[in-house]
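Hey, quick one: can you model this chain's 3D structure?
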Amino acid sequence: MKLKFIIPVVGDFSAYSEELAAYLKPHLTAETELEFSSLQYGFETVETELAGMVNGSQVVMSVRENAEDFDGVFVDCFDDPGVYALREMGLIPAVGPYEAAVTTALSLGERIGIITTDQAGILNEEKKARAFGVSERITSIRALDLMVENIKEEKERVLASLADLCADMVQKDRVSVICLGCTAMYYIYDDLLQILSERRIRVNVIEPVLNGCVTLESMVRMGFNNFVPGEVAFDSLHWSQTEGRRN
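Sure thing. Here's the predicted structure for all 247 residues.
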């Protein structure tokens, strides 16, 4: 099985890809191969609706170019940019971390929490919950008050904040499952679980990259394709981009 793992932003992510591969490998079957790629055009982060729209279109076109080489595609951003459009194309199964995490959470608890990056992220998570039809089940949304690019730079602060937020959400908001609302948080997942165990805080914590990749792998193994019925015609699409162009 070969899965396309798209980092839906512009930049060099070779080191990040190696870290992710090492993190995911123990949890995937031996025959599953991940191929990592990022975008040539678009924004360097996805933290706005505009960035998600622009980068999502790039995700779609990158998959369209070589979908036949893969069994499925995972888009590494908690906003799932381009994922629904990939499902509209229906070429291969497509999974994003948000929908997969929330779907798993719905089976684990009645009251769900999400920890996002900053205050703007809270508004975005509320919007996504309404769009996905789960706003009544997502009862707690908290923020780290950090930008995405700072999450890996401040490990100890992030880890302590995550543990405190989890404890607060369990005690005050009565959640039994919490989704980490940014894929950049993957690198401290095991440490977070250890701290919560030591503090005897009983809660299910979903790390969206791992959960999403396992979901996609299972989908492919069972022969499913989460396509959206209908056809997408590219005949009328005008798609021309030039490096450095400003219009």
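One thing worth noting: Residues 155-173 form the longest helix (19 residues).
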